[in-house]
Design goal:
four-stranded antiparallel β-sheet; alpha+beta; 29 strands
């Protein structure tokens, strides 16, 4: 479980050990004697806490028995000379070894530091010259019952230490890391924050009786000159960048900054792009816009002057001949081959749709029945529908880098745990002040750290542990699903809570050490110790309680506390309690049990009442639950939106001439049928893909009906309103009339629908699953909608017209009105008349057109200037309903947390750890490369504000090397079975794994490396050995081939606090850069393995690394396909296709301008909407453009006016008004994601589409629209020769 967000790193109260060390070391002291003589020898009596006093002795040093030689060589080799006469006996030497065992495991990372450290205590304990620097100041008489002699116990001592020695020892040790705890070793030895630690107070603390470990008072006196007749101990020292001997290198860069040189500096932030002191894009676009206006108005003025020269007055009536002569060059001569090809293609489409329309009207029943059968067949696939709600499947491609890395991580180390978390405040409680005894500054404690509140929180924590859930008749409690890293030896659940400093016990929390006058230690002092040494098994207060959690790992204060300043954890204003739960991606049964417990957990916390506590909370399932609740809660809003659109469509289709003919002339039933056809096309699309097992997403369900309604309703309005404005020709039957009308408008409908479908189909090239799925479903839905409208709807239109001609009522079609009509009379709606007689002539006036162009180009210029300022990402808060409890949790998370998500640097399978070179590439200790994996991550943590790496990494390989050293008692085996023997086992048959020789002290290599590694990974930390790797690293190392090789491994650290999408994206980007650099410096680029970073959020944020490229590619492909399809279906009108594409591109760019103004970020949801807006824009632009190209009016302005008059009203009523009514309703949604990404973006795309399609595009066509196709003009003349239409063609 080693990756448990740092929960479980080998913990050991080595401070306890250190203290014991000091205790033992201190227990060796005497009184005033002659020079070069001893002050003590042997041990006399017990002190408090079962430690021993030393016996006063003022004689010469005594020879050490030979059976102590090996031990002396191990501990104090500088004394091994001559007859080895010392001032300590075997028992004192053995105590020294015992007490140095735990310091050895941590300080020996830096040999120079440990050398100096041991020197201090060797001189104190055994030096044959003790009397020079030790002065006994207090004694007690002692009767030895064994020897039956009276002796003297030493109770007070002064130790004269050279100031140079003290400072050198401190300087060699100050940078030493405790890699499994992410803290400096001195932070655990100094009794205060490591920032306040120095040589003097460090040694004073170690020798102080108040630390709870020293058996009697030792007063250090620091001086480099003789004082009070004493010569200070000022032995030679080793700096951390010096080697101790010929076999050991200097300390590593991690443990000695002098080795690695100056601290790495982050690169300077990118310089803002400025011109004239302002944002460069603003300046460039402003200058460009001004230049455009200058050129454009100069050209307009030049044309105006040219016209004044050719015509008497701008206001003089211009007859048709003169008007025609302006463009006469366009219609003289032979048509080009391209024009003839375009006319033939256009004519083929017209003839095909004319024949098809007439057939559908003549045979309505077969057509309708056939359509219904097709709809039923396709829609029946909905029986197999699957809806994807897994966020990973929605936002991350199975072939993406992050997804592959996640699969690799899950396969080799197990899936990332599920997180249930509480953030607790105590708003009604006042802070309190703790006054340490006997001395020390007052320490403030935040409101949630008062004892009363801690007891209440512990009650809550225990209640959560006892929550019972049920699934399939099974009873589930936290203990059944929680993360228990030491299971089966220790089944306690991992709970990251400050209460674990007190072993989750009310009695431990209440413990005090006091008398009638003073409190010497209580929970305050224990807390202050534990936040500095969370891995300790024995604090240095008189309480001697462990800090290590009951689950076998430390609880780091920056994970369990919030709202503090700097490292002042006592000022915390919030408690953070985290319950990691095992994840089961491939075991549905176990996963459902976890989900069932989480549901009960959420219900419990929601209903929990305590006036003293304010609780923000979340479970792993919370976000998905709330998204589902949000979707269900917005069903009514969406339904009302659609109902508003349906009602409008049903009413707006009819042209009511009088109140008494309301039910005859209305087209409510036809409108409802049209809407049903639109929805049927959506159902068909969903059904078809459900047959093939393609899962739906919420985006598909929410967006596609809106899109298809926009396209489909527009088509309905165009067909119906064109029929209503048409006069039946003499001798023409209804089927021929509708066929003729369909021949006129269907090519336009086909143009828009087919170009949208192709654009969406090409959108499936996107790597983003959400965009790809949407594009796939949308393309099929749009095309099926077109097919149903030119078949089923045309037949229904024919039946409705026959009903109207027979004067039957709408809806109640069996009831007949007063009179019959021979045929439906020509009628023009008020909106059509407004467009024809008022709006179109006004818009296309000579003075209005330049104003329109200026305004729209100005808006475009602004949008271009801010397009690079649109934020990227998606704030999690937006996906939650406004009233969600998760919103409160997110706010608390952002406000209180001090650590970001854990990040794992994974070294893939294939690396050889058994060789010295292979180890040096990875480790961070003595002899390791200065650019090793661990060292580079450590360096990154030094500039955390830039790299977003918050802490030095935990390193299993460095802890393994410390664990396996023969000097420690960690690695032992039974000498008869060679099985592992835990350090806590007292058995004479347990011997060192490796010999105490020069070779044995070196790192294990080859078979030795693999022989002891499984033992390390199975060893539980204990007071004798805090380096056991079971809790911290059991899942960090993937042993393969029956434990004979090391496979994949990881090195864990944390990101800094990440609050915004930008932070998350930057953190992932920097981690990948670091990993790539590690891969390169290890020289493994060409091999089959590499280093990669993994964090649980990467799969969600990877999309944003390429979102800009994806957006450009997707929209570019869509525009390109629209251009090609438009060009072909307009009869190879290249220039017309360019104009359409240009206008749609302007709409898309302006959408980015709106996104910036309205705070809409760029992400998968907004990209889907942008792709959709590209499709809807076709509806706004293609119909008007096609009407322009088929118009035979002589001038561009007249053709634009005719196109806008005939198509503008249908587009406006069919899309703009329909959508506007539905969109406004979305503004009342409870969901922020609906309000921002649907209401705001839909409103923007409809308004921008309408203004560009109905204002800008006609004006642009009037200036630079394509010339009249001479072949089409002649074809129209031929078709209408001899009819009443002939006189209207060019008038």
């Amino acid at each position: 479980m080693g990756r448990l967000a740092g929960l479980v790193r080998p913990g050991c109260g080595w401070l306890c050990g250190l203290s014991l060390a000091f205790a033992g070391l201190l227990a060796l002291l005497p009184g005033r004697v002659l020079s070069d003589s001893c002050v003590w020898y042997g041990q006399c009596g017990n002190t408090t806490y079962d430690k021993r006093y030393n016996c006063e002795y003022d004689g010469p040093p005594l020879p050490l028995p030979k059976d102590g030689y090996e031990l002396l060589q191990e501990l104090c080799p500088s004394f091994f000379y001559g007859n080895v006469s010392l001032c300590c006996d075997m028992s004192q030497l053995q105590d020294l070894k015992t007490n140095l065992e735990l310091p050895l495991q941590f300080l020996s990372r830096c040999p120079s530091c440990f050398y100096n450290f041991v020197n201090l205590f060797c001189e104190l304990t055994c030096s044959p010259h003790q009397s020079k620097f030790l002065n006994v100041t207090g004694t007690l008489p002692y009767y030895d019952p064994v020897s039956q002699e009276n002796k003297t116990s030493i109770t007070e001592l002064t130790y004269y230490i050279g100031e140079t020695f003290a400072n050198a020892m401190y300087n060699a040790c100050k940078d030493v890391e405790a890699p499994s705890s992410n803290v400096k070793a001195l932070g655990l030895l100094c009794g205060r924050d490591v920032k306040e630690c120095n040589a003097i107070n460090w040694i004073q603390y170690m020798f102080s009786k108040d630390n709870g470990q020293t058996p009697f008072t030792i007063t250090p006196v620091f001086s480099d000159v003789s004082t009070e007749g004493m010569t200070p101990m000022n032995n030679a020292t080793k700096a951390c960048n010096e080697s101790v001997d010929d076999f050991t290198g200097p300390c590593s860069c991690q443990d000695c900054l002098a080795v690695c040189g100056p601290k790495p500096e982050p690169p300077p932030p990118p310089t803002p792009w400025l011109l004239l002191g302002l944002d460069a894009m603003y300046v460039i676009m402003w200058i460009s816009y001004m230049g455009f206006l200058l050129v454009f108005f100069a050209a307009v003025l030049g044309v105006w002057c040219y016209r004044k020269r050719h015509f008497v007055s701008e206001y003089t009536p211009i007859d048709s001949n003169i008007a025609y002569s302006v463009n006469s060059h366009q219609n003289t001569g032979d048509a080009s081959w391209c024009e003839r090809l375009g006319e033939r293609f256009e004519n083929a489409l017209r003839v095909t749709f004319t024949s098809w329309g007439a057939f559908c009207v003549r045979n309505p029943r077969p057509v309708i029945v056939f359509s219904l059968v097709i709809i039923a067949m396709c829609s029946s696939g909905l029986m197999f529908v699957k809806v994807t709600t897994n966020p990973i499947d929605l936002w991350s491609s199975p072939n993406s880098q992050a997804r592959k890395e996640k699969e690799y991580f899950d396969t080799h180390f197990g899936p990332f745990f599920r997180t249930e978390q509480l953030i607790i405040q105590a708003p009604n409680t006042k802070p309190e002040i703790y006054s340490p005894y006997p001395s020390g500054a007052d320490v403030p404690f935040g409101p949630p750290l008062t004892k009363e509140i801690l007891h209440q929180v512990l009650d809550l924590q225990e209640a959560i542990e006892n929550i019972v859930a049920h699934y399939n008749n099974d009873t589930i409690m936290l203990k059944d699903i929680c993360l228990a890293p030491l299971s089966p030896y220790n089944n306690n659940c991992t709970i990251l809570s400050v209460l674990n400093y007190f072993q989750n016990s009310h009695s431990v929390l209440d413990r005090t050490d006091n008398d009638s006058f003073f409190i010497y230690a209580d929970y305050h002092s224990h807390f202050l110790y534990c936040v500095q040494a969370p891995a300790s098994l024995n604090d240095t207060t008189p309480l001697h309680d462990p800090c290590l959690g009951t689950f076998g790992g430390p609880v780091f204060p920056w994970l369990a506390l919030g709202g503090y300043d700097g490292d002042n954890y006592n000022n915390a204003t919030a408690l953070v309690i985290t319950f990691p739960v095992k994840n089961f991606y491939n075991d549905t049964g176990k996963l459902m049990k976890a989900l069932a417990w989480e549901k009960e957990f959420l219900n419990f916390v929601k209903n929990y009442k305590n006036p003293n506590l304010t609780i923000s909370f979340s479970a792993e399932r919370s976000i998905e639950d709330e998204i589902n609740r949000e979707s269900n809660g917005d069903v009514n809003t969406v339904l009302i939106s659609y109902v508003v659109m349906f009602v409008y469509i049903s009413i707006a289709l009819g042209h009511i001439k009088s109140a008494r003919r309301f039910l005859v002339d209305s087209k409510i039933s036809l409108g409802i049928a049209g809407v049903i056809i639109v929805l049927s096309s959506v159902a068909c699309s969903l059904g078809i893909f459900s047959y093939f097992g393609v899962p739906l997403t919420l985006i598909v369900i929410e967006v596609i009906p809106f899109l298809v309604l926009a396209v489909g309703v527009d088509n309905i309005f165009i067909i119906v309103q064109t029929f209503q404005r048409d006069d039946r020709l003499q001798g023409e039957t209804l089927d021929k009339q509708i066929g003729r009308i369909l021949g006129d408008v269907a090519p336009s409908l086909f143009l828009s629908s087919f170009s949208e479908a192709v654009a969406f189909f090409l959108g499936t090239l996107s790597t983003m699953p959400a965009v790809r799925t949407f594009s796939l479903f949308a393309a099929v839905a749009v095309f099926i909608d077109f097919l149903l409208q030119v078949t089923c709807f045309v037949s229904l239109l024919g039946l409705d017209v026959k009903r109207q001609e027979k004067n039957h009522l709408d809806i109640l079609c069996c009831i007949k009105g007063d009179e019959e009509l021979g045929s439906v009379q020509h009628s023009e709606s008020v909106l059509f008349l407004f467009f024809k007689n008022i709006y179109s002539p006004f818009l296309l006036k000579d003075w209005m057109r330049p104003i329109v162009i200026s305004i729209f180009v100005g808006i475009l210029s602004f949008s271009v200037s801010v397009v690079n300022k649109v934020e990227i990402g998606l704030d999690q808060r937006l996906s939650m309903p406004d009233d969600s409890y998760v919103m409160d949790y997110f706010n608390s998370l952002s406000k209180y947390l001090h650590a970001g998500p854990p990040v794992y640097f994974v070294l893939e399978e294939g690396h050889d750890y058994t060789t010295l070179d292979g180890q040096n590439m990875v480790c961070g200790g003595v002899g390791c490369n200065n650019n090793s994996l661990v060292q580079q991550v450590f360096d990154a943590a030094q500039i955390s504000s830039y790299t977003k790496i918050g802490y030095a990494p935990s390193s299993w390989i460095d802890d393994y090397f410390d664990w396996v050293k023969p000097q420690s008692t960690c690695c032992r085996v039974y000498n008869n079975t060679k099985q592992f023997c835990n350090a806590s086992v007292v058995n004479p048959s347990c011997v060192r794994c490796r010999p105490l020789t020069t070779e044995g002290k070196q790192r294990p290599q080859g078979e030795d490396f693999m022989k002891f590694l499984p033992m390390f990974l199975s060893d539980n930390p204990n007071p004798r050995c805090g380096k056991g790797g079971h809790a911290a690293y059991s899942s960090a190392v993937d042993l393969i081939h029956n434990n004979s090789e090391v496979g994949a491994t990881y090195f864990m650290t944390y990101h800094t606090v990440l609050k915004t999408s930008t932070d998350f994206i930057d953190a992932m980007k920097k981690a990948r850069i670091i990993a790539a650099n590690i891969t390169e410096t290890m020289g493994i680029q060409e091999k089959s393995y590499r280093v990669f970073p993994y964090s649980v959020f990467y799969v969600f944020y990877e999309q944003y690394l390429t979102i800009v490229t994806d957006t450009v590619v997707n929209l570019g492909i869509s525009l390109g396909s629209i251009f090609v399809v438009t060009m072909v279906l307009l009869g190879f009108e290249v220039w017309a296709a360019i104009v359409v594409s240009l206008t749609i591109a302007m709409i898309l760019v302006n959408m980015f301008g709106v996104m910036w103004l309205w705070g809409i970020s760029l992400n998968a949801v907004s990209l889907v909407n942008l792709v959709m807006s590209c499709g809807i824009s076709v509806e706004f632009c293609s119909h008007v453009t096609r009407a322009f190209t088929v118009s035979t009016k002589p001038s561009r302005a007249e053709r634009a006016e005719e196109a806008l008059s005939h198509m503008g009203s249908s587009v406006f009523s069919g899309i703009t008004l329909t959508k506007f009514g539905g969109i406004v309703v979305l503004a009342f949604s409870k969901s922020q994601i609906f309000q921002i990404f649907y209401f705001r973006m839909y409103l923007a795309m409809v308004l921008l589409g309408a203004t560009h399609g109905l204002i800008f595009l006609p004006v642009l066509l009037s200036y630079i629209g394509p010339s009249v196709n001479k072949a089409k003009t002649r074809a129209v003349q031929e078709r209408n020769k001899g009819t009443e239409r002939e006189t209207l063609l060019f008038f």
